[in-house]
Amino acid sequence: MQNSKKKIQQIIAICMGHFMNDVFMNLLIPLSFLFKIKMGLTYAEQAMIGTVIISLGSFGQPLVGHAVDKKGKSGLLIIAILWIGVLTSIAGFINHYYLLLFIAGLGALGSALYHPLGSSLVINLLGKTKGAGLSIFITVGSFAIGFAPFVAIPLATKFGLKSLVLFIIPTIITAAIMYFFKVHEIKLGVKAEDDKNTTRVIDKSKISWVASLITVSVIRSLIFRSFLLAFGVQVLLMKGVEEIVAGIALSLLMWTTSAGTFAGGYLSDKYGGKNTMIFSSVVVTLLLILLIIAKGVPSLIIFILIGFGAGLGNAPNITMAQEIIPRNTSLATGLIFGLGGGLGGVIMYFYGMIADSTSLFTAVTLLLIPVIIMDILIFLNPIYEDGEIVTKLTVKREKR
Predict the structure, then answer these.
(1) C-alpha span between 261 and 311 (Å, rounded)
(2) 366 and 354 in contact (C-beta within 8 Å)?
(3) How far is 286 from 305, CA to CA, in rounded Å?
(4) Do the Cβ atoms of 45 and 97 come closer than 8 Å?
(5) 127 has a pLDDT exceeding 70
(6) How far is 86 from 166, CA to CA, in rounded Å?
(7) What share of the chain is helix, strand, coil (3-state, %, to 5)?
(8) pLDDT by residue (tens digit) across 211-257?
(9) How do 384-385 and 388-389 pair as beta strands?
(10) Are 297 and 383 in contact (CB under 8 A)?
C-alpha cells in the first residue's frame, strides 16, 4: 500500500515537472509577436524564435531516448527542469536578436532530456495501459502549453518582457517537490524479455512505417505545436478578432488540445491507435478548411475546436510507433516527440517566409497540403501489435 502511494506521488511529481517543462518550451513562442515589435523583426525572424526552441528541444530526444532505453538516470529530470526554467526566464532581459535565439535554444535543450525520460518513467510506473498512461503525461504538457500564453501574454504586455524572470520561482518549487518525492530514486528497470542477450536492432522492414509515423508527427507539429502557436494571435486578428480575445483563444486552443489528448489515449486503448488517428486527422482537416473560410466569431470557435481534434491523435501517434518497435519504446517516443516536433518547427520558418513574401492568409491556406499528406499516410499505415502486423485473418484465428 505504501509502495503504491509512493508511485502515485512520483507520477504526480513527474507530471508537475512535465507541466513546467512545457510551460517553458512554450513561454517565448506565443510572445514572439512582442519580440517582433521590440526588435522590429520580420515574420520569418519571428518564426525563427519558435523554430530554434522547438528544434533544439526536440531533435535531441531520439538520441536521449535511445540512451534511456539502455541506462536512464531519473535524477536528470530535476536538472532538466532547473536548466530550462532559469535560462528561459531570463530571456526577457535580452535585447539582441541572435543572443535571444542562443539563450532560448540553449534552455530548450532541457526538454530534449525531459520528454523521453519522463514518459518512460510514467509508463513504467503505470504498467500496461500505454495509451491511458501516455495521455496523462501528454495532457499535462498540453495544458501547460495553454497556461503559458494565458499567463505570459497579459504579464509581459503590462509589465514588459523582463517580468518573465518571475517564472524562476515555480521552477525552484517544482524541482524541490520532485526531489522531496524522490523522483531521483526511480529506477528504469529492464524487462525480463529484454535481457542482455536480446537484440534491440530495428527490423529494416519496419523503418518505412516508423518514418511514416514520424512524418505524421512532423505535420502535426508544424500546424498545431508551431504555426498556430506562433501565429495564432495574428491569424485571429486577421479574421477580425480583438487582440485580448485572440490571446485567450490561443490558451483555449491548447486546453482543448489537452482534453483531446486525454480522450485520445483512452480511445486508442479501446478502439485502436489507427482508428483514433484517422478520426483525428479527418476532423482537423475539415476544421482547417472551415478556419480558412470563416471570419469573426465562427473563426474563433473553429480555431478553439481544432485543438480537441488535434489532441485526439497525440497519444496514438506515439503508441503506434511503440508497437512497431516494442523493444525501443523510449526511442520511439523520442522519434515522434523529438524528431517529429523538431522538423515541424524547422518547416514553420519557411511558412514564415511565405507569409513575408505573400501574406499570412496564403501561408495558412498552404497548410492544407501537408494536412492532406498526413491523412493519406495515416490511412496507409498498417496496424502493429508487439512488433507484428495485425491482420483480420490473425484476429479471427485468435478468437477461435
Answers:
(1) 4
(2) yes
(3) 11
(4) yes
(5) no
(6) 10
(7) 80, 0, 15
(8) 899 999 999 988 887 888 889 989 999 999 988 898 889 889 888 88
(9) antiparallel
(10) no
Q: How far apart are the first and last CA of the chain?
A: 39
Positive or negative, the Cα torsion across 188, 189, 191, 195? positive
How far is residue 335's CA from residue 68's CA, in Å, rounded to a whole number?
Answer: 13
The x, y and z cell numbers of residue 159, run together, are 509589465
Model confidence pLDDT, tens digit, residues 163-179:
999 999 999 999 999 99
CA distance 208 to 175: 40
- Containing 262, the helix (H) or strand (E) segment is helix 243-271
Q: Torsion angle of alpha carbons 170, 173, 175, 176, nearest 10°? A: 180
Give the list of residues 6+ apart from residue 150 with CB closer than 8 angstroms, or none. Answer: 247, 248, 251
The answer to whether 221 and 48 have CB atoms below 8 angstroms apart is no
What pLDDT was estimated at residue 194? 45
C-alpha cell of 342? 523538431
- pTM, full prediction: 0.68
Distance CA 350, CA 285 (A): 21
Which amino acid would we find at residue 82? Answer: L
C-alpha to C-alpha distance for 196 and 200, rounded to whole angstroms:
10
Looking at the DSSP bridge assignments, the partners of residue 384 are: 389
Phi, psi (degrees; rounded to nearest 5) at 389: -70, 130
DSSP class of 163? G
Cell 517543462, residue located:
21
Query: Which three cell numbers, joined as nine digits, stand for 63?
Result: 538520441
> Do 85 and 171 contact (CB within 8 A), yes or no?
yes
